[in-house]
Amino acid sequence: MDNIIERLETVDWQLVCSQLNDKGYSQIKGLVTPHDCDVLRNQYGDQQLFRKTITMERYRFGKGEYRYYNYPLPELIHLIRENVYEKLAPAANSWMNVLHIDRQYPASLSDLQSLCRAHNQHEPTVLILNYKQGGFNTLHQDLYGDIFFPFQLVLFLNEPGTDYEGGEFVLTEQVPRAQSKAIVLRPGKGDALIFTTNFRPVKGNHGFYRANMKHGVSEVLNGNRYSLGIIFHDAVT
């Protein structure tokens, strides 16, 4: 496993947080190596690593399949989750402050997990998603309970244009008194995308307001698309 801690330390986190404030998302190029992408993608076949498999059509979430990891998470995933959380917690608290939301997030992931457990949220929410030809994911938000962290991360585990066509990552932002804005992204293998779980603060004429955002995946036209979602809060048992 490549030294992910060193890679994370080279990221311009001030820029990431600025982009999250301005757009609700930030892309980090080449956060994980192609080899680590292959290792993570190949884990999809190891049933012992996962607590649950979801067939998306059954719940009308789209078309495809995803699997939730068990605790303990694989080391690479744990290190990314733990260290990225610590980088983002100050920005999360800034969002709560400007929106006058009575919530402050602890500095460490372990303390966030303690807060989740106090609200009966015990289950890990990290998952691998697999879309074959025709697969897609409807627009949604990953909340899982009363306690949710306002940012999440997706790692893209194979290469668009080579391993699959279509399957773009889609964000929508609700614009007050107007139609929703769509954002279409096509990150490459090894890239990470950090984005809002629920909303972002936008400065208006009378202070900040919440702009609600959702995310999904457009239809995969051919090939097989894999991604890994890292959600920082845990789920209700």
TrEMBL record:
Pfam family, one: Oxygenase-NA
InterPro entries: DUF2086
Domain of life per record: Bacteria
Protein's UniProt name: Prolyl 4-hydroxylase subunit alpha
Annotated organism of origin: Hufsiella arboris
